[in-house]
Amino acid sequence: MKAFEELKEKYAAGIAHTFIFYGATFDYASKHTSLKNFLIQRFTGMSENRKSIIIYDRADGITFPTKSDENFFSSVVNDDLVNLYGGQIPRDPLSAFDLIGKALKKDHFALIVDYAESILPSGEMSSLSEADRTAIVSVLKWAKDEEEIKRKGNPVVLITSALSRLNSLLREPSARIESIGIPYPGPEERQEFIDETLVAYKSRQKPLKFDKDFDPSHMARATAGLAKVHIVDIIQRAKLQHKPISFSFVKDRKNDIIRAEFQDVLQIWEPEYGFNMIWGHEHVKVFLDKNVIKAVRAGDLRRVPKGILFMGPAGTGKTELARALAYECGMNFVSWNIGRMKERWVGASEEKTDKGKWAIISIRPVIVFIDELDTAISRGNHGDSGVTNYQMKSLLEFMSDESYRGEIVFLSATNKPEDIDFALKRTGRFDVKIPILPPTPDETPGAFIGALRKEGIQHNIAPEQLKDLTMNESSWDSSRNLVGSDISAIARKAYAIAQDAGNENVEFSHLEEASSLIKPSTQDMAGMIASAIRECNDLSLIHSFYRKESPKTKSSRTEEEKDSPAYERALVE
Predict the structure, then answer these.
(1) Cross-strand bridge partners of residue 368
(2) How many helices (H) and strands (E) does the chain have?
(3) Is 437 exposed, middle or buried (0-12, 13-18, 19+ CB in 10 A)?
(4) Which helix (H) or strand (E) holds 414?
(5) Closest Cα to residue 420, out of 562, 265, 307?
(6) Residue 375 near residue 421, CB atoms below 8 Å
(7) Strands 109-113 and 33-34
(8) Each residue of 466-521: pLDDT tens digit?
(9) Which of helix, strand or coil describes residue 543?
(10) φ and ψ of 121, to 5 deg
(11) 347, burial (CB in 10 Å: exposed 0-12, middle 13-18, buried 19+)
(12) For residues 77 and 88, is the Cβ–Cβ distance under 8 A?
């Protein structure tokens, strides 16, 4: 277990003897062993100055893994135990921490505090109970002030699900308490665990059955984002329902677990199509192919952007393009709804933020999609006791971490890039800002053909016919600003018209009728186009139709394009 190896290194170096384990602390630490039992085994097996183990949690009070540990503890604190507590080991935090502190000073012990957030909670000290305040101060003194505990090298481990749930005083650098995160298992660890579980079931004459097109290696990939306890849950449910383990079975249960665990803050999607189903945006696809897809496959992570911001009006296909990119890369795809991370209870929002980060780290390589970033989060005084600023700071640090370059690619979509906090937009977070704009007149016929194909609609329409298509009794031009969602709506309407007329295939007349009935999206299209172009930090990523050009190149444009109102309005000012 890497987290324990980190503890050993820091303990041996004298950096600290008090530690916080947070993250996936509920998961198996080794094979099918809980974290608490794993720590008991490791501390008991320490060859130098063998430690007796003390365990404390608010429900059970002071407990011990063995009777010998209990007897040794009682002998060390016998006088206080008899004189102050009538020979009975107390369980309330005030008395228990007093007695534990005395034991740690007198002899060789290791202390494990489980569910530490229930004893050392976050919040202002003035608002906490006397027992909580005393427990917090006791731990701080054990960590940095008590010389007897330091000399004896007695390790203290606090276990919590989220670092933010512990009092902030314990997390300050001056506290000399080291925080060690426990991530969700990666693909190799999941594969090893699944293989071990299969062997265990086989040894009990209860071999697991897999679907014919699904094997343990597929299961290891399909369970990205899950803990080992979740994998056991899936296996047990399959056994209970007498079903073979299949991709659909794993996917359905995984969705239930993710939904319950992250409450719609984090959703893991399975991209179903690539760039072949996305019509247009060819210059964007070329850029993504060179700088993300091929770079990731070749391991040239220096070329991969930390973050990519898609900008442009709603309906231009920003989200579809993001999913198709994940499909082409072979990367996992996660939708992170930052706007839903706020909670009314102290520490709950921070916990959601931290849990989301750990889950994302565990399923690398991954594309993290944040929709409508302009409304999701920002800095400033929000009247929420600093929750939003904590989330913003946490997100900024996460996005800036160079160790994740090429393994975690942040991708966001917005139609108002000017409203996004500058700290998020800067290079080093969203390195690349790409306008995703409505199709040009030359692209529109192909966009219609692409929409018909994507919807699975049979038709007898040639692309050249679409140049004569009218919209609401006017010839189509770029001032109409049809976006992809409008084109798809027209294609579906044409299909309905054809079906109602008893036709199997859509004809040009059906599409023409549909285009006269469907209204394009009504929004500040020109303003959103201009905003996307202004915010773009690489002119090669702006389609030539929308790009501001020199007089020499502008003179070569067709008269129709030069007279386009959308073209004139969208020029960079």
Answers:
(1) 334, 410
(2) 25, 16
(3) buried
(4) strand 408-414
(5) 307
(6) no
(7) unpaired
(8) 876 766 544 444 445 688 888 899 999 999 999 999 999 999 999 989 988 888 76
(9) coil
(10) -70, 160
(11) buried
(12) no
